[in-house]
Each structure stands twice: as C-alpha cells, then as structure tokens.
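Lab notebook, bench 4. Continuing the backlog of folding jobs that were queued last week. Each job is logged with the same field layout so the records can be merged later without manual cleanup. Today's entry covers DUF397 domain-containing protein, a 66-residue chain. Filled in by technician R.K.

JOB TYPE: sequence-to-structure
TARGET: DUF397 domain-containing protein
LENGTH: 66
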Amino acid sequence: MTPTIGGALSGAAWRKSSHSGDEGACVELASLPGRVAVRDSKDPGGPVLIFPPAAWSAFATAPPRR
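JOB STATUS: finished
OUTPUT FIELD FOLLOWS
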C-alpha cells in the first residue's frame, strides 16, 4: 500500500452498504479521491479492496448471478 493510499484509508469515512444483510455479512464502503474502498465490517483492520469508480459502479449495478 502506498503512503498516499494508507493516509487516505486512515481518514476515510466508512459506511455500511445498503445491500448488507442483518446476518453479519456486512460490507463497508469509503469514497477516496478517484477510488472506492471496500472492506469487511467484521474485520475493519483487515484487507481493503480498492476499485476505480467505474469498476465499482459496474459491479454494484450488475444483475445478481444465479
């Protein structure tokens, strides 16, 4: 992780996804400059996935796979 990303993550405003369920399977999102960060709410100190906004938008709006 670069110092720029690390600094952005330390000050990030995380929010729970509206699509997270009540069973504890929660995803948190944070908007960073030119990126979207995603983490597991049960492990806030764990790994973070970082996506370009277009990639996150495509993922978030894709129809569910069955």
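OBSERVATION: The longest helix spans residues 53-61.
SIGNED: R.K.
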